[in-house]
């Protein structure tokens, strides 16, 4: 059955691919944040495990291709591995339910190792599933066409690529929104079970859709795997060459010619072409090492930025959607506008030049990321190091004050209702301080601990009141949340609530602990003083800030409050990530699309699976490079790591340009034709010989 000139079965395959990619990219989009916030891993471990997983997903296709070609056939392979895949996604979803081990119901899993074990099992099953079916689905789609449908087949591959990007685009938009919801039985949490559950459901849909179409598929029997043949041929050539290494054996034109005792001329010629392309692949992993950091390092970078786009609040993991959106726009633009323009300028933009340009652009994107990182670092607070303490002063009094630190250290003046931001001292040197209001002086001894921040509240009452508050904050709030605490500057007790969070009763000049609020909101502050309710709506506190709010009084049921900024909010806007995404997407368009086309044009048609395997291998190796570089470089500064990656890729790009310069393009069809010609001659010659033989026999 056909529809619009396409076999009907194609539509099932395209829908299946869309659901599968939605499932994979949706899960991958929130993965690094799941590691960081749910499993409580640090940035480096989260990045490492993320890239290990991606590397696995690109190593398993080789396994999938072997199973499909040598044993089960594509159809059965897709079905059996999809089942594994669906189970993996479901396990992943279960692993993120914090009520699973949260027996004391405090919102934190009591036994994290259960969650870690489950999510690792889930990820391994997913890697097996997604990798195993990756080489089969596109090829299985190609099998559905007859030989006379060449045009439809190439159009199918374009639609196929589009469905991949549509799936990844939608899931990268939707899954982070699901993650940002609050859900849970006993305590409200970020909703990871839903963020992993929806991809699991879609994977099940993909599987069902694929099975429904099963009556219509053309199923090609497994033909045996070319990869195995090629490997055997190479192995035999090396072994044979080694056996005949002494001088008496004549040299052969190419080391692969040593396989000619056992393998036919055609296979050897084809293997030579394949190896020529695979040799060019050696520098390519470095590109993927940079490209795949969108999901790890760049997402973590976005968590320290301001995601407020006018009316919409963008989640850090949603910034990855910039890539598929741009791909969908850029692929047609580049093909229809940019390449023709370059052609008009009489520049011969060969495939290998395109790949070189792609590498250069990716390295540029990382320079852009480093520039953004430098801007972010300027806004990050500096916390006290070992042996140091920091003190901030808030003057709650009605007149100016002077604070002197131990005779030999400096003194500062603080205006009424003003503050002096954190000053850093050597903990061992600072024992006491004096506060002077007009003529009254008060001395206080300081029991400071190292690596801590303190706030000093001072006020001129009958005698000078000095309160030292320990600030329990040691890092900037994560995920763009805000920390808020209150100080009571009234002469009587007050009861404070903000939004739905109760801060309890505060005595005069005492402070509450910090509470966490989600960023970008404005909440109502309520204070009950002598049973008189007073309220005010807070100002917008941005993202990732910490504030101390001082309650000064109440007139006409309106609170009088003063805000003191302890940690400044994220001020660098997420939109600043768009340039680096744009440059990287341009790089992907000229690199990725060209790479596969070039590979296919330089090798015989029956060797495509070997090249596909090689190409996916470059992605896997790229992700392993991230592990090695990020692990080996002891760079404490994130921007320096970006620059390091940019420099490495630039060096590799230059090496590749040199390799490409010496590469000569071949036409596999011509070589095939020559081989056919030789074979024909050989057959004719054999026939002549046998005919003469017959004649000679008949004469006897």
Automatic annotation (TrEMBL):
One of its GO terms (molecular function) is oligopeptide transmembrane transporter activity. Keywords: Cell membrane, Glycoprotein, Membrane, Peptide transport, Protein transport, Symport, Transmembrane, Transmembrane helix, Transport. One of its GO terms (cellular component) is apical plasma membrane. It catalyses: carnosine(out) + H(+)(out) = carnosine(in) + H(+)(in); glycylglycyl-L-proline(out) + H(+)(out) = glycylglycyl-L-proline(in) + H(+)(in); an L-amino acid tripeptide(out) + H(+)(out) = an L-amino acid tripeptide(in) + H(+)(in); L-leucyl-L-proline(out) + H(+)(out) = L-leucyl-L-proline(in) + H(+)(in). Residues 678-700 have a biased composition (Basic and acidic residues). It is found in: Apical cell membrane; Membrane. Pfam families: PTR2. GO terms for biological process: protein transport. Residues 677-700 are annotated as: Disordered. It comes from the Eukaryota. PROSITE patterns: PTR2_1, PTR2_2. Electrogenic proton-coupled amino-acid transporter that transports oligopeptides of 2 to 4 amino acids with a preference for dipeptides. Transports neutral and monovalently charged peptides with a proton to peptide stoichiometry of 1:1 or 2:1. Primarily responsible for the absorption of dietary di- and tripeptides from the small intestinal lumen. Mediates transepithelial transport of muramyl and N-formylated bacterial dipeptides contributing to recognition of pathogenic bacteria by the mucosal immune system. Belongs to the major facilitator superfamily. Proton-dependent oligopeptide transporter (POT/PTR) (TC 2.A.17) family. Interacts (via extracellular domain region) with trypsin. This is Solute carrier family 15 member 1. It comes from Psophia crepitans.
């Amino acid at each position: 059955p056909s529809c619009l000139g396409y076999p009907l079965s194609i539509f099932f395959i395209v829908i299946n691919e869309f659901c599968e990619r939605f499932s994979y990219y949706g899960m991958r989009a929130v993965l690094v944040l799941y590691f960081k916030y749910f499993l409580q891993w640090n940035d480096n471990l989260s990045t490492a495990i993320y890239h290990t997983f991606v590397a696995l997903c690109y190593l398993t296709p080789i396994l999938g291709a072997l199973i499909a070609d040598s044993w089960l056939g594509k159809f059965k392979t897709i079905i059996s591995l999809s089942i594994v895949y669906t189970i993996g996604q479901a396990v992943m979803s279960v692993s993120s339910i914090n009520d699973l081990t949260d027996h004391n119901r405090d919102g934190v899993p009591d036994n994290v190792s259960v969650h870690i074990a489950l999510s690792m099992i889930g990820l391994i099953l997913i890697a097996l599933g997604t990798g195993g079916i990756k080489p089969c689905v596109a090829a299985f789609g190609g099998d559905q066409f007859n030989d006379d449908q060449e045009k439809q087949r190439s159009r199918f591959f374009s639609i196929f690529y589009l469905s991949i990007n549509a799936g990844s685009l939608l899931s990268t938009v939707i899954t982070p929104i699901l993650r940002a919801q609050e859900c849970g039985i006993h305590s409200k949490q970020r909703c990871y079970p839903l963020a992993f559950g929806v991809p699991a459901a879609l994977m099940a849909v993909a599987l069902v859709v694929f099975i429904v179409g099963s009556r219509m598929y053309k199923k090609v029997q497994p033909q045996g795997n070319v990869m195995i043949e090629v490997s055997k041929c190479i192995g035999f050539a090396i072994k044979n060459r080694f056996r005949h290494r002494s001088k008496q054996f004549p040299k052969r034109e190419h080391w692969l010619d040593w396989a000619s005792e056992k393998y036919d001329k055609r296979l050897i010629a084809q293997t030579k072409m394949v190896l020529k392309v695979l040799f060019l692949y050696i520098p390519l992993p470095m590109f993927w090492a940079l490209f795949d950091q969108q999901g790890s390092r760049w997402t973590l970078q976005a968590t320290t930025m301001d995601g407020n786009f006018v009316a919409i609040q963008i989640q850090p993991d949603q910034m990855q959607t910039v890539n598929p959106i741009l791909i969908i726009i850029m692929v047609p633009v580049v093909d229809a506008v940019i390449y023709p323009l370059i052609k008009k300028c009489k520049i011969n933009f060969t495939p290998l030049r395109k790949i070189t340009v792609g590498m250069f652009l990716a390295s540029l994107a990382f320079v852009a990321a480093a520039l953004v990182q430098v801007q972010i670092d300027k806004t990050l607070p500096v916390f006290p190091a070992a042996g140091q303490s920091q003190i901030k002063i808030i003057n709650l009094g009605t007149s100016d004050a002077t604070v002197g630190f131990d005779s030999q250290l400096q003194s500062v003046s603080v205006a009424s209702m003003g503050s002096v931001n954190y000053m850093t001292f050597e903990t061992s040197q600072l024992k006491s301080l004096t506060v002077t209001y007009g003529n009254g002086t008060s001395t206080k001894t300081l029991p400071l601990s190292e690596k801590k921040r303190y706030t000093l509240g001072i006020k001129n009452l009958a005698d000078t009141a000095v309160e030292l508050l320990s600030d329990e904050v040691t890092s900037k709030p994560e995920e763009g949340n805000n920390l808020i605490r209150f100080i009571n500057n009234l002469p009587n007790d007050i009861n404070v609530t903000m939004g739905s969070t109760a801060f309890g009763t505060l005595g005069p000049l005492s402070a509450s602990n910090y509470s966490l609020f989600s960023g970008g909101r404005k909440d109502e502050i309520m204070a009950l003083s002598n049973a008189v309710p007073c309220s005010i709506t807070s100002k917008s506190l941005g993202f990732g800030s910490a504030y101390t709010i001082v309650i000064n009084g109440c007139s006409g049921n309106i609170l009088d409050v003063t805000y003191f900024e302890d940690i400044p909010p994220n001020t660098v806007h997420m939109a600043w990530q768009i340039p680096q995404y744009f440059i990287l997407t341009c790089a992907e368009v000229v690199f990725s699309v060209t790479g596969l086309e070039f590979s296919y044009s330089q090798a015989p048609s029956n060797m495509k699976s070997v090249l596909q395997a090689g190409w996916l291998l470059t992605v896997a190796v790229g992700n392993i490079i991230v592990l090695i570089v990020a692990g080996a470089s002891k760079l404490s500064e994130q921007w320096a790591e970006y620059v390091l990656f940019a420099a490495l890729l630039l060096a590799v790009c230059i090496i590749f340009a040199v390799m490409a310069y010496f590469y000569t393009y071949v036409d596999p069809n011509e070589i095939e034709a020559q081989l056919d010609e030789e074979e024909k001659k050989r057959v004719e010659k054999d026939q002549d010989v046998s005919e003469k033989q017959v004649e000679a026999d008949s004469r006897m």
